[in-house]
Every structure is written in structure tokens, then in C-alpha cells.
Amino acid sequence: MAPTTTTLPTATPNAASGPSWASLAEQLNLSTHGAVLGPAHPGYAEAARAFNLATEHRPDLILRAETVDDVVAAVRLAAGNGLSVAVQATGHGAAATGSGTILICTNRLGSVSIDPVARTATVGAGTVWQQVLDAAAPYGLAGLSGSAPGVGVVGYTVGGGLGPIARTFAFAADHVRALQVLTARGELLAVDADRDPDRFWAISGGGG
Ligand SMILES: Cc1cc2nc3c(=O)[nH]c(=O)nc-3n(C[C@H](O)[C@H](O)[C@H](O)COP(=O)(O)OP(=O)(O)OC[C@H]3O[C@@H](n4cnc5c(N)ncnc54)[C@H](O)[C@@H]3O)c2cc1C
């Protein structure tokens, strides 16, 4: 259960029928560890703020995810009620979130584990490149980061990832080995070139 409660919005997401935002927030609050924030909550503005200040998020609910299960719960709730979800790791991207949406903030899901033999890094959804560089450097390794170490690894990589050493090593997306993917229906999948080749191809940029 979430450690904090929220001041709840009163509007109804689907005007004709369905639960109110207050009731959706209550449900989410009961099934997650992370804080669930409505627009009237004092923490809402800070949680919604993107690195890119030209971007203004105005979701109806924010979940500050603390675990992968939190993210799964939010996506399943949205799917079950015909709502949109959006994801923010750092807010370096410029995609604003509007109403009718649950914004899932992943910045508390930063984690890095380096396998120096396989020369791979396994990262959580909220990891930024500086964390990977710091963890890899003791092994004489480095990630294929971009020009700014505060950018999120996942957003950067699924967007292609064109860094200063890309002329030598290509796009970061070309080096992805495996992904944990949560579908819009809320199914958590292990995706790699053998187990789910089409999905792996598409999420890694389709080679284009
Ligand atoms: C200062 C700066 C320097 C940059 N330098 C480079 C560079 O050198 N090379 C380069 O290629 N790009 C660069 N970029 C672009 C950057 O890679 C993209 O904006 C990237 O999408 C940012 O990812 P983020 O997670 O940090 O940002 P966010 O705004 O949090 O996310 C960006 C997008 O990715 C999605 N996303 C993030 N995490 C997930 C997830 N776990 N699951 C699903 N969707 C997710 C978000 O929903 C959003 O649409 C730079 C951007 C800035 C602002």
C-alpha cells in the first residue's frame, strides 16, 4: 500500500459511465507502494515537472512508482478503464501528458548491474546514463551514452540513442540484448531476439 494518501480529483474520466478519478486513485493507492497524486496534492507539481521546462504535464493522476509491480498495477488499472498511460523517467523528452491520463514516474526505479564478462549492463526503468558510466568504469567499460549523462537510458535507447562514439559503435539500440516489456494490456514480457523476435525488432528501432 502507498505510504501517502492524496487529495483526490472529483471529475469522472469517462463522462457517461465508469468510476471517478477519486475512486481510481483509491484503487491505485491500495495496490501500489508508490505515492498516488492528484492535481490538488502538494507533491503533484514537483512529480509532474519535466527536465524540459517547455513541457507541461497535466495528467489526472500521477503514480511515483517504487516497484515494477506498481507500474503493472497502474497500466492494468488504465487498461481496465479505457484510460491512457504515459511514462516519465527524467522529462528530457518533449512529449506533454494531457487529461485522461495516468502519468507513471519511473525515476525511483534506477538500478544498474554490470556483468563484466558478458560486457552488459542491466538497468531499471529510471536509470540515467551517469549511473551506468559510474558502475561500468571500474571494469574499464562504458555505456553507449549520449552527450548528456542525466538522460534516461531507456528513453534514449528506444529512441535510437546516437552518442559521441556512435560512428564507431553505432546506435545504442543496436546493442540491446533483452528487454522486460509491459504491454498496454498489462502483460509483463521477457523480450529478446529468440523469445519474441518481432517485438524485439520493433522496440529496438526496426533497424532503420
Ligand atoms: C540535454 C539533452 C541531451 C541529449 N543528448 C542526446 C544525445 O546525445 N543523443 C541522443 O540520441 N539523444 C539525446 N537527447 C535526446 C534524448 O535521448 C531523448 O529526449 C530521450 O527520449 C530522453 O529520455 P528520458 O527517459 O531521459 O526522457 P523522458 O522525457 O522521461 O522520456 C522520453 C520518452 O521516452 C519514454 N519512456 C521513458 N522511459 C520509458 C519506459 N521505461 N517505457 C516506455 N517509455 C519510456 C517517455 O514516455 C517519453 O515519451 C538529449 C536530450 C537532452 C534534453
List keywords for this structure.
208 residues, alpha/beta, Uridine Diphospho-n-acetylenolpyruvylglucosamine Reductase, domain 2, Uridine Diphospho-n-acetylenolpyruvylglucosamine Reductase, domain 3, two-stranded antiparallel ribbon, globular, binds flavin-adenine dinucleotide
Task: Describe the protein in words.
This protein is an alpha/beta fold. The protein has 2 domains: 21-105, Uridine Diphospho-n-acetylenolpyruvylglucosamine Reductase, domain 2, CATH 3.30.43.10; 112-203, Uridine Diphospho-n-acetylenolpyruvylglucosamine Reductase, domain 3. It is 26% helix and 16% strand. The protein has 7 helices and 8 strands. The protein has helices at 21-31, 44-48, 68-80, 129-136, 153-158, 166-169, 197-203, and strands spanning 36-37, 61-64, 84-88, 101-105, 112-115, 120-123, 178-182, 188-192. The strands form 3 sheets. The protein has a 4-stranded mixed sheet with strand order 1-2-4-3. It has a two-stranded antiparallel sheet with strand order 5-6. A hairpin with a 4-residue loop joins β5 (112-115) and β6. α1 (21-31) runs antiparallel to α3 (68-80). It starts with 20 loop residues before the first helix and ends in a 5-residue tail after the last helix.
